[in-house]
Amino acid sequence: MKPVTIKEIKLHIVALPLVELLKTSFGAEPFKTAIIIEAVSENGLTGWGETALKTKPSYGSETVLTALHITRDFLIPKLLGQTLHSPTEVPALVKTVRGNHHARAGVEAALWDLLAKANGMRLADYFAAHLPAGNTPRESAVVGVSIGIQDSLDEQMALIQKRLDEGYGRIKLKIEPGWDFELARAVRARFPDITLMLDANSAYTLDDADHLKQLDQFDLLMIEQPLAYDDIYEHSLLQPQLNTPICLDESIYSAQDWQIAMRLGAGRILNLKPTRVGGYTESLKTYRLCQESGTPLWIGGMLETGIGRAANLAFAALPAVNLPSDISATNRYFDPDITEPPFELAPGSSIRLPEGPGIGVDVQRERLAEGEARWRESNPFAPLWG
Ligand code: OSB
Ligand code: MG
């Protein structure tokens, strides 16, 4: 594999209008925000990565501005001038930076793209090159769609129908106390056969166990993160009380966290968000753990732009990812996205991998600049960003 020497890493904070807001139990933000990372090598190649974070510490503790601070002031200085033979060398180079997984993941992602391009490989094939033989990626990933909390059941039904008409084969609905049982009952009455799952984003406590048990009757594929964002243990007390498999999202920050969750029986399915575990190196480790233990696995999303989504799509094409991932078509998120061409839904509720090297999509510089201008205009903390 050809090595790459890192010459420059530039950061672009963007705010993009969303086609459809995603209201969760912790609310909705008016724009999608992200730090887009542009890594340039000594020989003039560019790699792109994304730190997909909100302006508020609501999903996790990081925000787009904490990530800016960590990336600019701690991560970039450790990486400039380094020669890498593989992006899997990055975690060791930045190991003095604790936590801040999304920030670390964004920079690492740009280097995955850069090294894949330097070696003329699609990112999916480059990931596979870091796995044991037999992990050849598929040409497409099976995907589903995540739908936010709506103002009424009628609106929720209409949106589900729209997504089914578009061809999505797995529907994920966001729930919270007061928008759960009646919602699931109404959806099942209208759509008895769809593949349905619910995501609570940590809205419940163990005291709600009897209430959550009522959801068992709706034949759910899984219930995602019912309990606290930083809990594993109480999920292990809840899972035996439910027939519905628990899928962990917020509480799994590393392969080791998932190892602990499995030992405790805290969940049966993993939503692996590459940014949440700190990047694709830790994601590959987590992937292997799931593969070896037979854990049902899918790739979660953070409403990524085309940059983050292309990389997640490449990862979701790996063969041990065996449940539909939260990677939807471009028109579900942005009009237009900052990359071209758009991702389109294909038969079998799937999205095809782009052909080109690295992430395989092209960043549109003028749209990136518009996104940066919108960030400056829309965010009260923008003056902090030069
Ligand atoms: O809980 O999975 C989640 C988006 C932002 C933060 C948390 C979550 C989500 C999603 C979106 O559900 C999935 C997607 O990117 O399509
Ligand atoms: Mg989730």
The CATH architecture category of the largest domain equals Alpha-Beta Barrel
- Radius of gyration computed on alpha carbons: 20 Å
The end-to-end distance, rounded to whole angstroms, is 38 Å
- Helix and strand element order: EEEHEHHHEEHEHEHEHEHEHEHHEEEH
* Mean of residue pLDDT values: 97
CATH superfamily of the largest domain: Enolase-like C-terminal domain
Query: Per CATH, what is the topology of the largest domain?
Result: TIM Barrel
What compounds sit in this structure?
2-succinylbenzoate, magnesium ion
- Helix content estimate: 25-40%
Which segments are poorly predicted (pLDDT under 50) over 5 or more consecutive residues?
none
- The CATH class of the largest domain is Alpha Beta
How many helix segments?
13
Strands of the biggest beta sheet: in what spatial order?
Answer: 6-7-8-9-10-11-12
Strand content: 15-25%
How many beta-strand segments? 15
Q: How many domains make up the 3D coordinates?
A: 2
- Report the biggest beta sheet as strand number plus sense, adding barrel if it closes: 7 strands, parallel
Structural class: alpha/beta
